[in-house]
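Need a sequence for this fold. Nothing fancy.
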């Protein structure tokens, strides 16, 4: 393994353990996780591999094959910058959890999650490192505990107020399955996603665009949802049962956000019902409805995502939607095998017509979650 060779060359010995954790796409259930709702992501074939050996002196030495290959030494957690914050954040949260400083570590990272595509490379990085440290220190944490620790690293150390979806997907997903997760109880169930036997594929359309304001808008949406829940006297928008009554009591953005979150939770449950009935060919309409709701009610789409979805449908997709946080990143399309070329051509042509950078197409195959590699 390339990461083991790089580790040995930089740190002078073989790593004690190697863990891989994947990125994810979300089939449906967008911006519902931090509203205590439902999500249905699956792991993608790309991820982050972390080779790790503990150190006794508290020092952290980090090497990334994607960042030039020179090791960075971090003596104090607060000195971490850029991508190293996701790793140091995990170590910092582990120390907090254990009530004592975790010993340092030598860590080499190799990743192949397409960058900027919104496929959760940062969650993959956090979960790979957390899983390796859990293993090395014999902490016995469950995959969900590792996901929660990784989320805390991102919330409290990196400062991104994300929900639990990405880290849970990376830690818990199973091959050939999507993960139905209740983000309140944290109960989860693997749901078989048998595309191939129905002659279907899920195509990722990476717009190759990422709008800069995404972080600020994410926090704003979250605050709007929390404010709406307070006005409605519920713990979270997940608890709204009388949607019509709730909408009468809200206005403007809070009204639209509530409309999205409540209907999106129902769409997740409906989609899970269809999958369990073996009706995977029928899920397209729910994907389309989710996209319209994210575009018009939650207002997190972008022209590039809308054009990708519209052109995919014109090209013969059975359904399509933006996936992930929004404001760029990727869309997914459910496509019959014989229509794949038509969909790719339709989206490429729509982008070319507008003079936009060509989109990138990736096959989304439901893949396993975090696992030990050596
Ligand atoms: C980002 C966050 C997730 C989730 C999605 C939107 O990916 O990290 O927690 O909120 O956006 O569904």
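Here you go.
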């Amino acid at each position: 393994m390339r990461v083991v060779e790089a580790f040995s060359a930089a740190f002078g010995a073989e790593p004690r353990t190697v863990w891989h954790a994947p990125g994810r796409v979300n089939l449906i259930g967008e911006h519902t996780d931090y509203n205590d709702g439902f999500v249905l992501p699956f792991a993608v074939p790309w991820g982050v591999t972390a080779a790790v050996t503990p150190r006794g002196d508290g020092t952290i030495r980090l090497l990334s094959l994607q960042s030039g290959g020179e090791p960075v030494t971090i003596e104090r957690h607060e000195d971490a910058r850029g991508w190293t914050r996701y790793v140091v954040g995990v170590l910092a949260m582990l120390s907090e959890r254990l009530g004592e400083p975790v010993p340092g570590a030598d860590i080499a990272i190799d990743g192949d999650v397409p960058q900027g595509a919104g496929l959760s490379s940062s969650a993959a990085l956090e979960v790979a490192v957390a899983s390796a440290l859990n293993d090395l220190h014999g902490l016995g944490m469950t995959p969900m505990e590792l996901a929660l620790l990784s989320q805390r690293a991102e919330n409290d150390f990196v400062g991104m107020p994300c929900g639990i979806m990405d880290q849970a997907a990376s830690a818990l997903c199973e091959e050939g399955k999507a993960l139905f997760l209740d983000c309140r109880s944290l109960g989860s169930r693997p749901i078989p996603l048998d595309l191939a036997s129905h002659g279907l594929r899920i195509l990722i359309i990476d717009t190759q665009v990422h709008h800069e304001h995404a972080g600020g808008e994410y926090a704003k949406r979250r605050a709007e949802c929390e404010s709406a829940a307070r006005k409605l006297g519920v713990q979270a928008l997940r608890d709204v049962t009388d949607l019509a009554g709730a909408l009468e009591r809200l206005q403007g953005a809070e009204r639209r956000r509530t409309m999205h979150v409540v209907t999106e939770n129902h769409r997740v449950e409906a989609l899970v019902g269809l999958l369990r009935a073996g009706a995977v060919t029928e899920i397209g309409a729910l994907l389309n409805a989710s996209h319209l709701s994210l575009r018009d009610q939650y207002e997190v789409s972008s022209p590039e995502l809308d054009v990708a979805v519209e052109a995919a449908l014109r090209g013969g997709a059975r359904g399509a939607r933006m996936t992930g946080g929004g404001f760029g990143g990727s869309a997914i399309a459910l496509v019959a095998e014989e229509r794949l070329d038509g969909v790719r051509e339709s989206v490429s042509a729509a982008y070319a017509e507008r003079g936009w950078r060509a989109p990138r197409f990736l096959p989304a195959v439901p893949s396993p979650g975090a696992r030990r590699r050596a």
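For context: The pocket of alpha-D-galactopyranose is lined by residues 30-31, 33-34, 162-163, 165-166, 324-325 (CB under 6 Å).
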